[in-house]
């Protein structure tokens, strides 16, 4: 049964659109609601889904053509009988290469390997490592490759068992969320297709680089002319690098929002003998993001740091007294982080602006505490978030910190686990830091820096005694937090740690 694929409603007062990209070609099998093509109007991009499962028949309106509302775009052969539609294509050329064509049906259906969801607001990733190559046979859920986003690494499993017939993006390439990474031939017979599949992978880069033969969307050409941009200044996201109207809009917005480039100090000339011994390594996306966000924090917020010191005697004595019993009952070690988390939660209640953020001309106060705990990993610094830390017990906090730390070191944290924090604690003391000024984690307004515990002489009741002391540093956004509030916060943390009973009495 043949079904017509027509132009959907394009919106109020919009009567026509341009066919921007066809994602399928005649003979391709499609599932119901799978995207067939993309239309572009003056204002929006509209995706056209398949009205039913079947095989795409004839494409009536090709890329670049202008179509009206309800115009015929293509025909779709529905149902099981449609599956036979591509067969004549394989049988038609009965020439010398007919045997090679006949092997394709025996190899099983083709399955696309897609880029998985990358997390909220994350639209692209870099292909970090391919664990398999074209022609390799894999089982369902076996890891094919690893993607790297701004914050996390994501493993891509095989959707089915079979053979990899084509890899579309090599290591180092940038891919978009929902994009196609590779193509597999399903089933055990897929291995037989590997010899013919290997050369099939070669044309992929050529198609991407054949920029001169790419016909960009008409609306994109018009927008580039109006904005005074060249094709080289716009990153195309359509098929084969085709530039879409939305790509031009993004390029214009990026140019408008980009700060004027600072006069970067040129690298001093390096003697040839030294240059030969240097090694250049491209920064990972995570490291680039860390660099950008930290610099953005300094450029955006008015960061100021206030310091204090805390006598850790009481916390250490309490920990030593109960650590064995605590671990036996709760199955987790009693560390210092739960004490600091509790102390910060206590102080944030009294000084809520340290737990708030600026949104335009408004201050957003958070009636909850999602505590970020900075953790160093081999890939760089990450900040997993412990949600609703203000409602957790010591044991719950210790368990959450242990789990997040382990997932961070293994690179298994999801984007959701690192978003939404309202305040952050950074413990540089584990690396031996005696004192430092932590940088804010935007859009948060405060971050507490912990440091090394070191025996120092202090005066207590007029006598010099040796006590385990730690320097504390609170960096805060002076746009929202005044000096009085910052100092009060740090004093309350100090008081709670030097006399943990205050936490029980809410003092």
Automatic annotation (TrEMBL):
<feature type="domain" description="Lipoyl-binding">
    <location>
        <begin position="2"/>
        <end position="77"/>
    </location>
</feature>
<dbReference type="InterPro" id="IPR000089">
    <property type="entry name" value="Biotin_lipoyl"/>
</dbReference>
<comment type="similarity">
    <text>Belongs to the 2-oxoacid dehydrogenase family.</text>
</comment>
<dbReference type="Pfam" id="PF02817">
    <property type="entry name" value="E3_binding"/>
</dbReference>
<keyword id="KW-0816">Tricarboxylic acid cycle</keyword>
<dbReference type="Pfam" id="PF00198">
    <property type="entry name" value="2-oxoacid_dh"/>
</dbReference>
<dbReference type="InterPro" id="IPR006255">
    <property type="entry name" value="SucB"/>
</dbReference>
<protein>
    <recommendedName>
        <fullName>Dihydrolipoyllysine-residue succinyltransferase component of 2-oxoglutarate dehydrogenase complex</fullName>
        <ecNumber>2.3.1.61</ecNumber>
    </recommendedName>
</protein>
<comment type="pathway">
    <text>Amino-acid degradation; L-lysine degradation via saccharopine pathway; glutaryl-CoA from L-lysine: step 6/6.</text>
</comment>
<comment type="function">
    <text>E2 component of the 2-oxoglutarate dehydrogenase (OGDH) complex which catalyzes the second step in the conversion of 2-oxoglutarate to succinyl-CoA and CO(2).</text>
</comment>
<feature type="domain" description="Peripheral subunit-binding (PSBD)">
    <location>
        <begin position="215"/>
        <end position="252"/>
    </location>
</feature>
<dbReference type="InterPro" id="IPR011053">
    <property type="entry name" value="Single_hybrid_motif"/>
</dbReference>
<feature type="region of interest" description="Disordered">
    <location>
        <begin position="82"/>
        <end position="109"/>
    </location>
</feature>
<feature type="compositionally biased region" description="Low complexity">
    <location>
        <begin position="82"/>
        <end position="97"/>
    </location>
</feature>
<dbReference type="InterPro" id="IPR036625">
    <property type="entry name" value="E3-bd_dom_sf"/>
</dbReference>
<dbReference type="InterPro" id="IPR023213">
    <property type="entry name" value="CAT-like_dom_sf"/>
</dbReference>
<dbReference type="Pfam" id="PF00364">
    <property type="entry name" value="Biotin_lipoyl"/>
</dbReference>
<dbReference type="InterPro" id="IPR001078">
    <property type="entry name" value="2-oxoacid_DH_actylTfrase"/>
</dbReference>
<keyword id="KW-0808">Transferase</keyword>
<keyword id="KW-0012">Acyltransferase</keyword>
<dbReference type="InterPro" id="IPR050537">
    <property type="entry name" value="2-oxoacid_dehydrogenase"/>
</dbReference>
<dbReference type="InterPro" id="IPR004167">
    <property type="entry name" value="PSBD"/>
</dbReference>
<keyword id="KW-0450">Lipoyl</keyword>
<feature type="domain" description="Lipoyl-binding">
    <location>
        <begin position="110"/>
        <end position="185"/>
    </location>
</feature>
């Amino acid at each position: 049964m043949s079904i017509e694929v027509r132009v959907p409603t394009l919106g109020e007062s919009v009567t026509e659109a341009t066919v921007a990209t066809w994602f399928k070609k005649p003979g391709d099998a499609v599932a119901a609601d799978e995207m067939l093509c993309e239309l572009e109007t003056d204002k929006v991009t509209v995706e056209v889904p398949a009205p039913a499962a079947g095989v795409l028949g004839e494409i009536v309106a090709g890329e670049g053509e202008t179509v009206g509302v309800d115009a015929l775009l293509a025909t779709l052969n529905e149902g099981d009988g449609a599956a036979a539609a591509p067969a004549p294509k394989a049988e038609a050329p009965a020439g010398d290469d007919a045997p090679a064509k006949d092997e394709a049906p025996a190899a099983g259906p083709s399955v696309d390997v897609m880029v998985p969801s990358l997390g909220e607001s994350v639209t692209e990733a870099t292909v970090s490592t391919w664990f398999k190559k074209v022609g390799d046979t894999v089982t369902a859920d076996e890891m094919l490759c690893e993607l790297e986003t701004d914050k996390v690494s994501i493993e891509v499993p095989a959707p089915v068992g079979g053979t990899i017939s084509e890899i579309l993006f090599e290591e180092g390439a940038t891919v978009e969320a929902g994009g196609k990474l590779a193509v597999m031939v399903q089933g055990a017979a897929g291995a037989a297709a590997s010899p013919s599949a290997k050369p099939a992978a070669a044309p992929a880069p050529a198609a991407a680089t054949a920029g001169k033969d790419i016909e960009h969307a008409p609306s994109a050409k018009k927008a580039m002319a109006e904005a005074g941009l060249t094709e080289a200044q716009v990153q195309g996201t359509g098929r084969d690098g085709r530039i879409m109207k939305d790509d031009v809009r993004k390029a214009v917005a990026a140019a408008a929002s980009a700060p004027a480039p600072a006069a970067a100090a040129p690298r001093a000339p390096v003697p040839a003998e030294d240059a030969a011994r240097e090694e250049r390594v491209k920064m990972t996306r995570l490291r680039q993001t860390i660099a950008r966000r930290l610099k953005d924090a300094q450029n955006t917020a008015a960061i100021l740091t206030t310091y204090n010191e805390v006598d850790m005697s009481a916390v250490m004595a309490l920990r030593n007294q109960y650590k064995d019993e605590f671990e036996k009952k709760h199955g987790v070690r009693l560390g210092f982080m739960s004490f600091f988390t509790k102390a910060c939660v206590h102080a944030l209640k009294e000084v809520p602006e340290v737990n708030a953020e600026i949104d335009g001309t408004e201050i957003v106060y958070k009636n909850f505490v999602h505590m970020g705990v900075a953790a160093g990993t081999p890939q760089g610094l990450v900040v997993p978030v412990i949600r609703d830390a203000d409602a957790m017990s010591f044991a719950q906090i210790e368990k959450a910190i242990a789990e997040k730390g382990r997932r961070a070191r293994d690179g298994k944290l999801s984007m959701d686990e690192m978003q939404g924090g309202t305040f952050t604690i950074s413990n540089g003391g584990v690396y031996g830091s005696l004192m430092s000024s932590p940088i804010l984690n935007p859009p948060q307004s405060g971050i507490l820096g912990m440091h090394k515990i070191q025996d120092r002489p202090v005066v207590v009741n007029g006598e010099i005694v040796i006590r385990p002391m730690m320097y504390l540093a609170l960096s805060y956004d002076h746009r929202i937090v005044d000096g009085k509030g910052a100092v009060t916060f740090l004093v309350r943390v100090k008081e709670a740690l030097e006399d943990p009973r205050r936490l029980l009495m809410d003092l």
